[in-house]
Amino acid sequence: MHLTSARHRMAGLDQAGTMKRISLALAAGSMILLGGATACSSGSSDGAGQGGAANAAGSQAAPAQTGAQSSTPSAADTQGGAQAGSPEIVEAPAAVQVPPGNKRVANFRGEGVQIYGCTDGAWKLIKPSAIMTEGTKSVALHDAGPIWTSTVDGSTVAATAVPGKAVQHTDAIPEILLKSDKDTGKGVFGTVTYIQRLATKGGLAPTGACNAGDVTATPYSAEYAFWAAN
User: Fold this and answer.
1) Residue 19's closest CA among 111, 113, 110?
2) Cα angle at 85 between 79 and 86, to 5 degrees?
3) Contact indicator for 116, 215 with CB cutoff of 8 Å
4) Rounded distance between C-alpha atoms, residue 225 and residue 199, angstroms
């Protein structure tokens, strides 16, 4: 009886700690969103440009792509290579390349958590919760949908993973290609057609069984490339 009670107390502490971390992450995101909205209303000139994101947490090198998508693209429009004055842009594996007729419009780093809940004794993804950065500047939030919301200009893009367009990893969530479902606003996300999630780190669901009602958050990072029609 004493051992069982101790285990129950420990489980409760673990879950409480997890929920506290999730709450802190969401609170931080909300503060950034509000800050961005204030900056927009006051005419701030901070824009979400298309420079590469900093590799602060160490990015995972993806396999090289199998060829350029147009005969004479600029460095910013290709799915690999460096953009002038920016950190190196992560190359996209062949499996998640964007169809011809699109150009890269932004490249941000995402850091946050993948949130999982227990359903029928197994961990199921509830949603991501991450902050997008360009260099050292926070520029967007990533949440359930999945959806990306610019904290600079208020534009949004919701997208769905393209079936069969993924690169699986044993130690991280897969690299994937997503297609835009809906864009809003006239900012950085207003005309996005495709999104690539690249160089993923962490984010996997816990292994083993779980109990109904359990929730956990697994830290992750990834490089996100946003594309629009030419």
Assistant:
1) 113
2) 50
3) yes
4) 11
The H or E element spanning position 165 is strand 156-167
Amino acid at 150: S
Helical (H) or strand (E) element with 39? helix 2-41
pLDDT band at 70 (very low <50, low <70, confident <90, very high): very low
- Helix, strand, or coil here: 24? helix
Residue spans of the domains in the chain: they are 2-67+74-229
Contact 174, 204 (CB under 8 A): no
Alpha carbons within 13 A on the beta-carbon side of 182: 6
Q: Which helix (H) or strand (E) holds 37?
A: helix 2-41
Q: CB count, 10 Å around CB of 60?
A: 18
Contact 180, 159 (CB under 8 A): yes
What is the spatial distance between Cα 187 and Cα 37, in angstroms, rounded to a whole number? Answer: 13
Q: Measured in whole angstroms, how far is the alpha carbon of residue 126 from the centre of its chain?
A: 14
Both structure tokens of 218: 């697994």
Residue 90 is predicted with a pLDDT of 85
pTM reported for the whole predicted model: 0.67
> In the numeric block, which tokens belong to residue 29?
């995101």
Mean pLDDT of 43-59: 34
In the block, tokens 């600079």 appear at 152
Of 105, 68, 72, 74, the C-alpha closest to 196 is: 105
